[in-house]
Amino acid sequence: MELMIVVAIVAILAAIAYPNYTDSVRRSNRSDARATLMQAAQNLERYFTENNTYLGATIAEDPDTDIWATDMSTEGHYTLDFSVAPTATTYTLRATAIGRQALDTDCPALTLTHTGVRSPPECW
After folding, report:
1. What's the number of domains the chain is made of?
2. Is residue 117 part of a domain?
3. Which of 3, 47, 102, 120 is 20 to 30 A from residue 41's alpha carbon, by CA?
4. Which residues of 38-47 are buried (b: 16+ CB within 10 A; e: fewer)?
5. 41 inside domain
6. How far is Cα 71 from Cα 97, in angstroms, rounded to an integer?
7. What is the dihedral of CA 14, 30, 97, 54, to 10 degrees?
8. Residue 25 domain-assigned?
9. Is residue 114 part of a domain?
10. Do residues 65 and 57 touch, judged by C-beta distance below 8 A?
11. In what order do the strands lie in the sheet containing 109-113?
């Protein structure tokens, strides 16, 4: 009887702890998207300095114009792309959750614009 009580208590604790743990992991993995977006934005600014335009900048397409060599984030939890094609003076970068990180329904995608606008704000 005592063993059954202990097993029940452990099961209840596990039922509460595991979802909280996985949510915490998803929230901490958002730092992968934030860091990748910031690094890609720095690379875009370098591209702009060299070319006087954002137009023509690519992600994982052409080594001569790539601002990011792959379409994956640093830790592989997100894909990186332009949500809107870059123009001469503007860009909007987007990191979209993939794999297990796609279960993060609160922040499935993060964006960063040329003016530094970060959205959604609660995910940054």
Report:
1. 1
2. yes
3. 102
4. eebbebbeeb
5. yes
6. 12
7. 180
8. no
9. yes
10. yes
11. 78-84, 92-97, 109-113, 118-119
- Give the Cα separation of 96 and 110 in Å (integer): 7
Handedness of CA 44, 118, 59, 32 (dihedral sign): positive
Rounded CA-CA distance 123/117 in Å is: 12
Residue type at position 84: V
pLDDT tens figures, 74-92: 999 999 999 989 999 999 9
Task: Give the HSE-up count for residue 53: Cα atoms under 13 Å, Cβ half-sphere.
Answer: 9
Rounded Cα distance, 58 and 12, in Å: 50
Q: What does the block give as tokens for 120?
A: 């959604």
Quickly tell me which residue has 């894909």 as its tokens.
79
In single-letter form, the type of residue at position 102 comes to A
Compute the C-alpha angle 93/66/109, nearest 5°: 20
The residue segments making up the domain with residue 35 are 30-123
Longest dimension (CA), the chain: 76
User: What are the pLDDT digits (tens) for 16-70?
Assistant: 888 888 888 899 999 999 999 999 999 999 999 999 999 999 999 998 899 999 9
